[in-house]
Amino acid sequence: MDSRSVSKHIEELEYQSKPHRLLTLIFPLNPPRAQVLLGLKKRGFGQNKYNGFGGKVEPQESISQGAIRELTEESCLRARSVNKRGVLFFYFENDPVTMEVHVFDTVEYEGEWEETEEMAPKWFGVGDMPFDRMWKDDERWWPMFIRGKKFIGRFWFLEDQVTIVREELAEVDSLEF
Ligand SMILES: Nc1[nH]c(=O)nc2c1ncn2[C@H]1C[C@H](O)[C@@H](COP(=O)(O)OP(=O)(O)OP(=O)(O)O)O1
């Protein structure tokens, strides 16, 4: 198990032994936290969905460094600081790999956003999210996210990547384990 994974603090033993893919997901907020920059994903996993920015954590970096790097690669924004907001585990039917997604926000970033090969960014009001074009779990944890809470969630999807057959979601005081 990757030492940066938080699986052992959250998942049961039988889940801990599955392969995990460590991923980041970061949402830039405008200073009063009224708007969020989402990207329409142009290729790969989650194509044609709006989401935050993110991807695989590289072997030599911390999870926060991965979040900052992916934000720049996908939107051209450079985050000066990030806040840890959530950890999400996704289980897909007939897929042995668990996705462990570390969720961040940033209110301190520099540069102008630009469309990249992977993402077409667009600002949305935090209360006016395009949930019909996002991952199904997002509308579950987004209310916690915009209230400034931290959260841990687990979602079991069917192979269609749309239907959630089971979920666990809880607010937590801390994500430091
Ligand atoms: N159910 C889900 N809900 C959600 O909100 N985000 C999800 C999700 N499942 C995956 N993600 C996010 C996590 C991550 O930011 C992105 C998947 O990463 P990518 O597809 O960008 O990974 P790649 O393998 O393409 O990575 P890179 O090549 O490193 O960019 O989708």
Distance between the termini: 16 Å
- Mean pLDDT score: 97
Overall form: globular
The total count of helices amounts to: 4
| Poorly predicted parts | none
| Major sheet summary line | 5 strands, mixed
- Which molecules other than protein and nucleic acid are bound? the ligand Nc1[nH]c(=O)nc2c1ncn2[C@H]1C[C@H](O)[C@@H](COP(=O)(O)OP(=O)(O)OP(=O)(O)O)O1
Order of helices and strands: HHEEEHEEEHEE
Beta content? 35-45%
Number of DSSP strand runs: 8
Give me the side-by-side strand order of the main sheet. 1-5-4-7-8
Q: Helix amount, in percent? A: 10-25%
Q: Kindly provide the radius of gyration, computed on alpha-carbon positions and rounded to a whole number of angstroms.
A: 15 Å
Structural class: alpha/beta
Q: Would you kindly provide a written description of the structure presented here, covering whatever features stand out?
A:
This protein has 4 helices and 8 strands; from the N terminus they run ααβββαβββαββ. The protein has helices at 7-10, 13-16, 63-75, 138-146; strands at 20-28, 35-41, 50-51, 78-92, 98-110, 119-125, 150-157, 164-172. A 5-stranded mixed beta sheet has the order 1-5-4-7-8, with helices on both faces. Ligand 6U4 binds at residues 23-25, 44-46, 51, 54-56, 90, 99, 101, 135, 137-138.
Concise overview:
This protein is an alpha/beta fold and 177 residues long. The protein contains four helices and eight strands. The chain has a five-stranded mixed beta sheet, with helices on both faces. Strands 3-2-6 form a three-stranded antiparallel beta sheet, with no helix packed on it.
